[in-house]
Amino acid sequence: MTEAGKLYIRGLNKKFNVDAKEISVLEAINLTVERGEFVSIIGTSGCGKTTLLKLIVGLGGSYEGDIILNGKRVDGPGLDRGIVFQDHRLLPWLTVSENIGFGLDAKIKKAERQEIIRKHIQLIGLRGFEKAYPYQLSGGMAQRAAIARSLVNRPAILMLDEPLGALDALTRMYMQRELEKIWKEERIAMIMVTHDVEEAIYLADKVVVMSSRPGKINKVIPIPLARPRDRDSYEFIRIKDEILKEFHLEAEKYFSYSI
Amino acid sequence: MASRKKFIWGDLLAGLLLPLGLLVLWQVISCAGWVNASILPSPVKVLKVIEDSLADGFLLKNLLISFNRVIRGFLFGSGIGFVMGTWMGLSKTAEKALGPFFHAVRNVPLVGWVPLFIIWFGFGEFSQVVFISVGAFYPVVLNTLQGIRGVRREYVELGRVFGFSRLKVFTKIILPAAVPSVFTGVRLSLSTSWMLVVAAELFGVSTGGVGNMMMDAREFFKMDIVIMGILTIGAVGFIMNQLLAAIEGHFLSWKRRTA
Ligand SMILES: Nc1ncnc2c1ncn2[C@@H]1O[C@H](COP(=O)(O)OP(=O)(O)O)[C@@H](O)[C@H]1O
Ligand SMILES: [Mg+2]
């Protein structure tokens, strides 16, 4: 069936009640994510990116329109979807192993659990740190453990909310390659929010540019480049310029409104 | 590591300076005969009494009787404190209904309850255990409430991502996150219970226990036993605290922020 693993978002609106006033945070969002596709979302802060990811994962409460995964409307969390939050959100009282196994489907037997955890520690390259506590990890290691934790239930689609935002530039580049490797191995769809245009292009099959107040999708830009990608190639830089131009237009529009 | 050890020895020595000084002063006063020996027996005489009381089990017997009262009062008070604190921590309604009452009642000093307890429960064991329980109750209820309220919402959200039931969110996330705070309450509660047992034995009619041992000795002007009682209370309180600190250090090692 072609629906399997496919995510449709159609006519999505999300409003919040703040001080008895309704504010529209997301408006008329349409987006299709193919099975195993990598989608990057970029947009200024406050434009509703986190809200969108939370809605897809089923944490956002009620919404107008449709979010459809595997032919079913999303109306709550499920193990077919995972999320990596911007703060790694590892539980400080659990070791790396325990954190990774934390959300593992309760139906899975003990021996198999251990095997799944072991495999994921291998996947993210944290061998030797199984018994370490989160305070003993660097930012990059913690974020890798958080990624492993979100993968153990083999979700069809993984949301990543600025997963590398807190890392230094070098660790960040390294983690981008790691993330690409994991995405290839796991063959699952990923939607990643980022502030970094280069990061968005490096990883994505398509980049979604959002504008704010209310949050809308401005443009969807396909990235037809072969992997692994060369950040200095002519095509890469051309696409980067195109996306940056979108942002400048957006900034002009915003400031001309507010003046 | 070596320098750290030396540092601790230095600390220990500094901490022993005052007690050793007092001991010397005490011995000098006794030898010089400035104070009547029946009011202030010499350290050597007290040491002899301690030795004899340890040898014939007199001290241990009284200690065990006091421990028994402490344990019952502590378990009762801290148990109810934990349940109430958890309940108020989980339910805003419960806190609104119970909180003001607890805070108002807390303003009554513990000894203020004694006349009431005597009339309600008599002078006996039960009255004494209730007295200790009230003292044991407050640290636990307050710290448990604070601990549960302080659990980061983000951790609870993580439980929802994995589809945890409310019970599982409580046992796997809220409770472990609140443990350090609860433990602080338990520590305070236990040391309060120990301090209160002597007071309870003073006002109540019961036999045995460190407090009663001291009261009986006072009647017969055996100051050496009175001083032994004071030393015992201090030593046991100190050891209890060290023990709990060690347990805390062992089980809450994940709390260390710096490696
Ligand atoms: N639970 C909420 N209640 C009210 N307003 C919210 C809530 N969550 C988010 N918002 C608002 O929605 C807007 C978008 O937030 P968010 O999705 O976090 O933006 P982004 O992730 O793009 O920075 C912000 O203006 C924020 O204040
Ligand atoms: Mg955000």
Descriptive account of the structure:
The complex is a heterodimer of chains A (259) and B (259). Helices cover 36% and strands 25% of the residues of chain A. Chain A is an alpha/beta fold and 259 residues long. Chain A folds into two domains: 7-80 and 156-258, Rossmann fold; 90-154, no CATH class. With 259 residues, chain B is mainly α. Chain B is built from ten helices and no strands. In chain B, helix 3 (58-90) packs across helix 6, helix 3 packs across helix 9 and helix 5 crosses helix 6. The mean pLDDT of chain B is 88. Chain A binds chain B through residues 57, 59, 77-79, 82-83, 85, 87, 89, 91-94, 102-103, 133-136, 153, and chain B through 154-155, 157-158, 160-163, 172-173, 176-177, 179, 252-259. Residues 16, 18, 25, 43, 45-51 of chain A line the site of adenosine-5'-diphosphate. Adenosine-5'-diphosphate is lined by residues 16, 18, 25, 43, 45-51 of chain A.
The CATH homologous superfamily of the largest domain in chain A is named P-loop containing nucleotide triphosphate hydrolases
Distance between the termini of chain A: 52 Å
Enumerate the distinct ligands: adenosine-5'-diphosphate, magnesium ion
In CATH, the architecture of the largest domain in chain A is: 3-Layer(aba) Sandwich
Rg of chain B (C-alpha, Å): 23 Å
Total number of beta strands of chain B? 0
Sketch the major β-sheet of chain B: none
Low-confidence stretches of chain B: none
CATH homologous superfamily of the largest domain in chain B, by name? MetI-like
Q: Give the helix proportion of chain B (percent range).
A: over 70%
Mean pLDDT of chain B: 88
Name the pair of protein chains with the most residues at their interface, and give those residue counts.
A-B, 21 and 21 residues
Distance linking N and C termini of chain B: 14 Å
In terms of quaternary structure, what is this?
heterodimer
What is the highest CATH level, the class of the largest domain in chain B?
Mainly Alpha
Level-2 CATH architecture of the largest domain in chain B? Orthogonal Bundle
